[in-house]
Amino acid sequence: MSLAVYCVICCRRMGTSTPLPKSHTYWREIRNLIKFTGSLILGGSLFITYEVLALKKSLTLDTQVVEREKMKSYIYVHTVSLDKRENHGITYQARKELHKAVRKVLATSAKVLRSPFADAFSTVEMEDHECAVWLLLRKSRSGDRAARLQAVQEMSEAHHWHDYQYRIIAQACDLRTLTGLARSKESDPRFFLRPPPLPPLKEDSSIEEELRQLLASLPQTELDACIQYFTSLALSESSQSLAAQKGGLWCFGGNGLPYAESFGEVPSATVEMFCLEALVKHSEIPTHCDKIEANGGLQLLQRLYQLHKDCPNIQRNIMRILGNMALNEHLHSTIVRSGWVSILAEAMKSQHIMEASHAARTLANLDRETVQDKYQDGVYVLHPQYRTSQPIKADVLFIHGLMGAAFKTWRQQDSDQDLTEKVSEDETKYTTCWPKSWLARDCPALRIISVEYDTSLSDWRTRCPMERKSIAFRSNELLRKLRAAGVGDRPMIWVSHSMGGLLVKKMLLEASKKPEMNTLINNTRGIIFYSVPHHGSHLAEYSVNIRYLLFPSLEVKELSKDCPALKTLQDDFLEFAKDKHFQVLSFVETLPTYIGSMIKLHVVPLESADLGIGDLIPVDVNHLNICKPKTKDAFLYQRTLQFIRDALAEDLEN
User: Fold this and answer.
1) CA atoms within 13 A on the CB side of 417
2) CA distance 31 to 12
3) Residues with Cβ < 8 Å from 200, sequence gap 6 or more?
4) What value, to the nearest 5°, has the Cα angle with vertex 548 and ends 546 and 549?
5) Got the DSSP string for 414-447?
6) Who contacts 548 (Cβ-Cβ below 8 Å, separation ≥6)?
7) pLDDT at position 635
8) 301 vs 220, 276, 321, CA distance in Å?
9) Which of 464, 445, 448 is nearest to 456 (CA)?
10) Under a CB-based contact definition with an 8 Å cutoff, are residues 606 and 618 in contact?
């Protein structure tokens, strides 16, 4: 304003002043012009400088406040990578140019196809190479299932991103995407955030006491005898343990079973095991799963899991509970939010077959995007445990026998070499589960399932004294679980050891009586029996003769040669198998088996292992090793592999 007034005054002076000599007038006009121009330039410069400074001040933010807000939302900023390979050299520039070209192609195709790409990202200011992250995130939420699966696959194959880019995905992805990444073999561990902090324990409380309170909060009515037994046992033993800790004494009141059988264990760990056993049974009931979740069970189990990383039995039971809870889809979001997915993703990569398989079962139950089947307690997929593009054309089921297990029964035959060294060896040389390591590699188009159920030689050592499960009862129970897992929808082979073969026979006979099970019968291509006592076992006779010492269990009693149920099962199945033209392969041991340090017994003789149809092959091993090949080139494995390939030849070709 002052500048304008000054200019006007100068102009008036020039117009009203008396005429001067021509030379004086000329220089005066030049001086006035210089003053006017200089004043104009100086004033304009000051004005522009003032406006720029004012604008900068108005746009400057408090960086500390911004950083605090970022931390509140867990937003990761672009930081310098610790990886020396990720530098800003030629490789970085080439990658950046490549991303820029890809983005231009995507943008062009979006315009041509009228895709919503431009609307979502045209106003976002970001580096060109960062656009792929947000594109994949958007794609992972697409309404098209194929697009979502492709997005997860591309994320899992990304190994060149910066650390913060993985963290962006980890925070922004939804439940389906996170579960898919956990079930993708090549996923980077940075996709999984650490579990949220666990709530502190109550004052003057312990994990053992909170486990007891959780168990006591569950409904105690309308339970079967075994659930009631485990619950009452866990509650009574935990009360005795708490009293012992406070009084400085060891209590052996009540049944005293957990302490009497585990003098070398820490009492609290023993009580925790009994509480977890009871929770496993409760978690099989959907309404009880809701109670476990509502009472903070997911966080308590996570605390216990982290505390007992060196105790496989405790971790196994925790995984069983979690896998059972994952059968209820309305609990999936709670399980994911509690941070369990990152723990499961880490466990999936474990070298220990049991830990990896339990984690695989839980994640498969969480993954409703690619898995329609539900895997109940005791049903474990050995292959494929990850998402795969390999089409699955047939199933192979492994059923263990008396005192067996889903994993240890099918390990390679033990040698004098230290087992701890074997774990880290090449699986082609030694494997803790040959169906997972060898068979899956030789026949990748198979889904391989192993089943686990509880058995005992004696009622003295039974886990649940209230439980008397016959072969007929177990077969119906396993049949129900296997149908829930989709067994019977594809061509299939049964592989069984010892008493497991009797269960297979009973399951097939029971399925033949139910019209809804016709697919399971029609899709059965063959059966492999490893030393199955079709006509009884010497073990049963021996146990009966010294029953005052062994107290033989119901399972053992049913293996005696004079058992009517066993004879009826053999006669009915033989007629049924001949009618259905099942392919059958049987192996039998020729060497006796040591039971303990003093008892030497030929468990299944040659005549008992003869089903009456199919090939019967004697092998110079004992009863325990009849299903454990020495090497991958051993006759036992190669003959088994040949039978599976021949029986499924047409199905695998199609």
Assistant:
1) 15
2) 15
3) none
4) 75
5) P-SS-HHHHTTS-TTT--S-HIIIIIHHH-TTEE
6) none
7) 96
8) 21, 9, 9
9) 464
10) yes
Q: What is the pLDDT of residue 307?
A: 92
**Six-digit token pair at 364?**
């498969």
Residues of the chain with pLDDT under 50: 1, 3, 5, 8, 16-17, 20, 61, 65-82, 84, 86, 114-125, 128, 242-267, 416-425, 458-461, 544-551
Instruction: Kindly give, in sequence order, each residue whose CB lies less than 8 Å from that of residue 593, ignoring residues fewer than 6 positions away.
Output: 600, 601, 602, 603, 622, 623, 624
Both tokens of residue 381? 């997929």
Determine the Cα–Cα distance for residues 272 and 328; give it in Å rounded to an integer. Answer: 25
Phi, psi of 117 (to 5 degrees): -55, -50
C-alpha 109/C-alpha 87 separation (Å) is 31
Short-list 317, 377, 381, CA closest to 348: 381
Helix or strand holding residue 573 (H, E): helix 564-580
What b-and-e string marks burial along 574-602, b requiring 16 or more CB atoms within 10 Å of the CB?
eeebeeeebbbbbbbbeeebebeeeeebb
Q: Could you tell me the two tokens for 487? A: 């067994």
**What's the pTM value of the predicted model, to 2 decimals?**
0.77
- DSSP tally for the chain: helices H, then strands E: 31, 9
Q: Which residue has the tokens 């037994």?
A: 229
Q: How high is the pLDDT of residue 462?
A: 53
Tokens of 557: 């009693």
Residue type, 143: G
Distance from chain centroid for Cα 162: 26
Amino acid at 540: A
Are 514 and 475 contacting, i.e. CB atoms less than 8 angstroms apart? no
Q: How far apart are CA 208 and CA 270, in angstroms?
A: 10
Q: Is the peptide bond before 384 cis (omega within 30 degrees of 0)?
A: yes
Tell me the per-residue pLDDT of 603-634, one tens digit each, with 9 for 90 and over.
Answer: 899 999 999 999 999 999 999 999 999 999 99
Phi/psi for 442 (5° steps) reads: -80, -30
The sheet with strand 492-497 has its strands ordered as: 379-383, 446-451, 394-399, 492-497, 524-530, 583-589, 615-619
Return the DSSP state at 267.
H
> Please, are residues 541 and 561 in contact by the beta-carbon 8 Å criterion?
yes
pLDDT per residue over 35-62, tens digit each? Answer: 778 777 877 777 777 666 665 555 554 5
Q: Is the separation of the CB atoms in 583 and 647 below 8 Å?
A: yes
Helix (H, G, I), strand (E, B) or coil at 321: helix
CA quadruple 532, 533, 538, 544: dihedral, nearest 10: 120
Tokens of 143: 């309404």
- The neighbouring-strand residues paired with 526 are 493, 583
Cα 233 to chain center, whole Å?
Answer: 31
DSSP-derived secondary structure for 87-107: -SSHHHHHHHHHHHHHHHHHH
Which residue has tokens 């069983």? Answer: 320
pLDDT at 201: 81
Rounded distance between C-alpha atoms, residue 313 and residue 193, angstroms: 26
State the DSSP string of 392-422. P-EEEEEE--TT--TTGGGSPPP-SS-HHHH
